[in-house]
Amino acid sequence: MATRRRFVLNTVSSAAVLMAATPLGAAEPARLEETDPIAVALGYKNVAALVDVQRFPTYVDGHDCKGCKLFQAAGGEQWAPCGVVPGKLVNAGGWCAAWVKRA
Ligand code: SF4
Question: Is it the case that residue 93 has pLDDT exceeding 80?
Fold first, then answer.
């Protein structure tokens, strides 16, 4: 019984230490809304195929954020920071007029 009690206390203590070590405010940034003024200005769409090609004729079918040099995914994330959209996440399948081919 003492062993079980010790195990429970150790587990609870370990969890408390982990929770205390988690930085406050470490929440994921918001996802870029297509209605955001910067998104409107850049013609950003969460789904590249929905780009307004009349307004943004530079769009090329098959280009998307994951193929853009400015997409900052650390390892295959669907949503990641972008070099031209500070503090927001963009969709790997999205597109905007600032698209630059990833090297
Ligand atoms: S700059 Fe690139 S990664 Fe950022 S929104 Fe535009 S296409 Fe996507």
Answer: yes
Strands in 79-82's sheet, in edge-to-edge order, are 30-31, 85-91, 79-82
Compute, in angstroms, the gap from residue 20 CA to the centroid of ligand 1.
36
> Would the CB of 39 count as within 6 Å of ligand 1?
no
Topology adopted by domain 28-91 = High-Potential Iron-Sulfur Protein; Chain A (4.10.490)
Tell me the pLDDT tens digit for each residue of 39-66. 999 999 999 999 999 999 999 999 999 9
Q: Specify the residue with its C-alpha closest to ligand 1, atom 4.
A: 82
Q: pTM for this one?
A: 0.76
CB atoms within 10 A of CB 89: 21
Radius of gyration from C-alpha coordinates of the chain: 21
Q: How many residues does the chain have?
A: 103
Alpha-carbon torsion, ordered 49, 70, 29, 89, to 10 deg: 0
- Asked whether residue 26 carries a pLDDT value surpassing 90, the answer given is no
